[in-house]
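Objective 1b: paired records.
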Amino acid sequence: TDDDMFSNVFCENSKKLINVHLFALAAKYYSLPNLGVCTPLEDILEALRGGSQETTGIKTDEFMSNKKSHEVQVMSKLVDRIANYCGIKQVIDIGSGKGYLSSFLSMQYNLKVYGIDSSNSNTNGAHERNRKLKKHWRAYQSRGRANLKSQRLEKANDRPVESEIKSKTINEKPLNNDNILQNQDQVTIQNLVPSCGFTDTATSETGKQTETDLVAWTQSDESQLSEEFLAILNVLPAGAVEVFSSSQCNCGELCEEEKAQRKIASLKAKASKSSESNLYFPLTSCITAETELSDIITDLEDCMMVGLHTCGDLAANTLRIFTAKPEIKAVCSVGCCYHLLSEQFENQEDCPEEVWGFPMCQYLKDKAWCCGRNARMSACLALERVAVGQILPTESLFYRAVLQVIIEEIYGVTKSDRHVGKTFSKSSSFIDYVRKSLKKLELDDSKLPDSCIMDYYEKYKDRMNELEAFNMLKVVLAPCIEVLILLDRLCYLKEQDSIAWSGLVKLFDPVKSPRCYAVIALKKQSCF
């Protein structure tokens, strides 16, 4: 049995760790990749494909960090697949933060997204960021026109003289017009940007092959949209930009039908601009398990909920709202900050009416299961990053450990609601770190001379290696604790009668984004 396999990891009497190698093997054995409970991302994307068309857009790393770009690209593709599969266009982004995912879902996939965050500064920042993104699209459009002008000048220098073209026209066998259109890669905007709702650009009439037609064809490259501009068109919703005028055809030579089509397309683009160019709405609200979304979103319709690194209890509450509200047809949630989860059995408090972040499923509730804050803190560590050589912040952890000894022994403080935060990165020395930390904790540092601070440092500095070893053991154990939290959420969904399918999917590269697992669920068709 599994218990027999790993029975020699700890001493039976002292309960101390006696076999580090076996400890590491046991941790790997109980990690999520080894348990075989995850659904591969490729499988779910294929299952949800249906008739959806692939879209290509600009690189998000122009606006985001590499980590955030990776997360947004991968998750937005899956969200779009789920939305298409369920036949919905409205997405509720819980804990939307700065609005990266929301903006991309609306611009790239033309989804109507409501981003809800408890921080008003985040909401205001998302508004401003969305405004700047739209401004950036216009800058791309201008750059595209400039590139076209540059290409036109280069091609003019390289173009053969007209007499040479005439000579080739006379001496060479005329080409079939249909072949010209196919072989020269002349593509309409509609084909390149299927999601934008533009009508076809007018192409040259496929009439009799003449000398004039060939000359016109050699000039047609002037009207080809630059690669950058095409990429921008592809991430914008229909009508969000004016149709880029093409010099491919002389407007005077257009037939009346083509002129009418162009006029109608232009009018449609202008009419839809006000209604479709702002498909992302940042809102400020604190979300709990009892939140009524209809009180926040007045035009709530059939929708799906998403959350990219929803913090602490917010991930659990997202799932609870999903199961309780019939209009929410699907959910895709990636949690984080496990240390901020509330636990029902942590303090042995009898609060039956309270809604807790852990446990969620009835199985663990019946067992009164408790992780504890230290275990939940460990679950936040990144084993994959350490495995590829990213070292643990041992010095900052050492500073923090010695500081705790100081405040306990000198000030008699064992618990505080205040936090030190990222003081280490702003400190020039250990003395500087301690004094800044004491001020944050509102403790009087005047009674603590520098010599006393350094005495504590010297007393414990030889034990820094012990601290590093201890934290490495915590890193190895981290995936096992994360498994418990994620499986609790999955089991909660499995207990619901309205759920057609639920699963865990590894969305991200764990080196780039350590909290890489999504909890996904779709409701039964009868619930639609």
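Objective 1b, second protein:
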Amino acid sequence: DSSLWKSIHKRINMAFKGEDHLDSLPLPVQRMHLIQVDSVQRWMEDLKLMTDCECMCILQSKPISIEKDEQNELILSSQYSTCNNLQLLLKRAWIISTELTRIAQKLEKNRWQRVHSMTVRVNCHVRSMINEYNTFTRSSSEEMHQLEKLLIDKCSEFTAFTERCIQTEDEQMLRSMKSCVNETLTTVAQYFGQLIELVLTHEAQNLLRQIDLSDSVYITESAINNLFSLTQEGAHLCRIIAKEGGVVALFKICRQDCFRCLYPQTLRTLASICCVEEGMHQLEKVDGILCLTDILTDNTHSEATHAEAAAVIAQITSPHLTFTQHLSSFLENMEEIVTALVKLCQEASSGEVFLLASAALANITFFDTMACEMLLQLNAMKILLAACSDKRIVDTPYSRDQVVTIMANMSVLDQCASEIIQGNGIQLLMEMLFEKSSSGNTAEVAACERVQQKSAVTLARLSRDPEVADAAVKLSCIPRLIKLCRSPTERNNSDSVLVACLAALRRLAVMSPDGLEDSDFQQLVKPRLVDSFLLCTNMEESFV
């Protein structure tokens, strides 16, 4: 029973917490979506829901009778937008799923009094959630009403069941009742999950119907913004939207000139939906890559539109995605897309535009060396290196991460070395070895580690060219690589940075053996790589 419940709770949480969704997106598409919320502020937000629940307990879930006119006034005064109402619904649903998990935990420990009190609370939350939803929804199906009734009835049955449990002291009777309570709890969780799925599907259908049928820019804009808010709630919601035809409806907007002003938010919503496989399938069906290519190569579109199109490209080309059925049509349009993205990097007026365009290019370079050859022909290296010298454009570790990714992937080409030397790229790689987070933010620290690792990888690959190795030695890359190997805090205790630095150091040592002291050579170069790695990971840093 316990394993079954954990499985159900995990599935429910996917719909509300959305943890996998944000992780699956590339950093540029996340738009720095991670916001740290003060614990007191979070408590204040949750307080309304909890006090509503207590009020419902006192009133025994009976509504207060009021006059018709007063009721209309109450509803109007408490009316929120569709987006806010759905946020409230999802928060209530998250509380219910958490409470159900806690009931299962208390049940395992035979804490019957706690089980009953929490069951009463869940009962009230479920009724409040259904009442709140029926207050703001325009229409609901017969299926939804039936499911609501089933859930309320089962919650009432659950509450009555646990009340009988706390009134008996017969241990044998309680043990026999425990399996029935577990079964009822599982049924409540199943009905609850089905209802939430149905509600979210219903709301997605309403928004997509507005987008599909409305000729009004304002109504369409509102529907797209609400749809985007839904996509931020997690991958599960993105799957629902994709299954209901969200990608088809949004690309239909992107093919109508009368909605040009809505292209940026439409493309932003598409980027979010395309983090799931269902979104990719829909994109392929509607020839979405051709549409994106047309937008990127059309100079009459705004920079914001081009940037959001680049964000969609960055999403659908993410190396983290395991589904790649859309790549065949992408390869057919790759040359035009790469050309447009390089131009966008060159003409970017802000750091965010450059970040989105360079992220798309970085992902594309993982496909094939053909993409790297295209970038070489387009003088992309010169453009990217020049951008790095402009702190207004390349202003974060995230942007530098994209640039050094492109450099690392292009460094497999022999012709790339001269381009990097001419653009002062070795100096840039040396600076990237010193990358440090200024805020201490977890995502930024991880980006800094990637920058250090990839810059070391790029140096290792390029140092097969004597000219590059000589330039790196003159810029004192060897002492910095040794410092990164020997000092865990310099590399933020990252093993991937350590391995990359050891590889780069060994390559440079071959080209310039005089640059190392004997102790460094004996410990970091001469042994097997794995032995040097173990030595450095076990090394205690000296603070003398």
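The longest helix spans residues 171-213. The chain has 30 helices and no strands.
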